[in-house]
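for the recovery benchmark. tokens below, seq after
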């Protein structure tokens, strides 16, 4: 019988500095976007409603929501691609659409189109020229980015973009979004349509940017990736911002632990446990008090620890609960 040792106590991250001490990168107040539709343009559809949020320098911020929730509308509004119907917002301290910030941002759209007959190197060379990079800076930056996104070999073979896979296209798109070494990177569904290998590669690129201290704002509906990557998240549904905060704030700090063990003198262990269930020599329950102190007591009582883990809900469970609750509220 294998005996699993209790997990190492997690190293909780330090408390973030106070909000007023961190530079604000994105600030919105009451941001709203409505469209007119129909043959006579007499129908009004609101895709974003009274959205207020703040994103700080160095954060990785994930925007979640079902299809049609307004995620892309918010992102395009922040980029100045569409104009808001109401509300105000700033990006890097300037009003939306200000040309002074365009040199400092990078953007990968969800369905990017690149000229198929260019090679990866030629495409990045063209993109670098749009930002006015010198020849020496272009050479250095393109080499760095091709290595970062794992496309150096494809570039060496002078493979054209029409020969790239979906994952390779996403990675060359990431490279073009970073060509100007931006302060803020906007990514619209960067893992959409990718197989597990492609998702892993794009996720690793985002984590690399995070370690470099970049501010990253991205939309996604792949919640497992968001849970790994993001410092804070927000959930949009039908244009409304229904939740926002860190994972600890939204899911709880997971200070309750579930334990499963085998054998031992149960009267010594029972005072530590809530909802104790016993099946033969197996038992499980929720720990009262310090889980690591309890883990030390198990062998002293002659028992063996099988599993010990935190019991807070997953992001997927929280997300679905929020969406269902909002739909119920709207129907009532």
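predicted aa per position
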């Amino acid at each position: 019988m294998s005996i699993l040792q209790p997990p190492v106590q997690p190293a909780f991250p330090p408390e973030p500095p106070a909000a007023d001490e961190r530079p604000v990168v994105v600030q919105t107040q009451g941001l709203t976007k409505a469209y007119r539709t129909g043959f006579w343009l007499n129908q009004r559809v609101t895709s974003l409603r009274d959205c207020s949020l703040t994103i700080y320098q160095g954060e990785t911020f994930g925007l979640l929501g079902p299809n049609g929730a307004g995620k892309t509308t918010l992102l395009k509004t922040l980029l100045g691609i569409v104009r808001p119907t109401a509300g105000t917002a700033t990006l890097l301290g300037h009003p939306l659409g200000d040309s002074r910030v365009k040199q400092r941002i990078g953007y990968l759209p969800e369905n990017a189109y690149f000229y198929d007959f260019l090679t990866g190197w030629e495409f990045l060379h063209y993109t670098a020229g749009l930002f006015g990079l010198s020849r020496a800076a272009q050479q250095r930056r393109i080499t760095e980015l091709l290595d970062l996104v794992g496309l150096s070999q494809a570039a060496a073979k002078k493979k054209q973009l029409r020969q790239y896979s979906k994952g390779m296209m996403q990675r060359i798109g990431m490279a073009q979004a970073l060509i100007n070494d931006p302060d803020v990177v906007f990514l619209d569904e960067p893992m959409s349509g990718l197989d597990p290998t492609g998702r892993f590669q794009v996720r690793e690129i985002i984590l690399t940017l995070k370690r470099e201290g970049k501010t990253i704002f991205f939309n996604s509906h792949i919640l497992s990736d968001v849970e790994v990557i993001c410092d804070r998240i927000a959930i949009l549904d039908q244009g409304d911002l229904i939740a926002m905060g860190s994972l600890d704030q939204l899911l709880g700090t997971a200070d309750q632990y579930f334990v499963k063990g085998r054998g031992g003198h149960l009267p010594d262990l029972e005072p530590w446990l809530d909802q104790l269930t016993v099946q033969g020599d197996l038992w499980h329950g929720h720990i009262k008090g310090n889980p690591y102190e309890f883990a030390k007591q198990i062998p002293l009582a002659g028992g063996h620890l099988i599993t010990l883990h935190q019991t807070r809900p997953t992001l997927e469970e929280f997300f679905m609960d929020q969406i269902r609750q909002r739909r119920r509220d709207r129907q009532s």
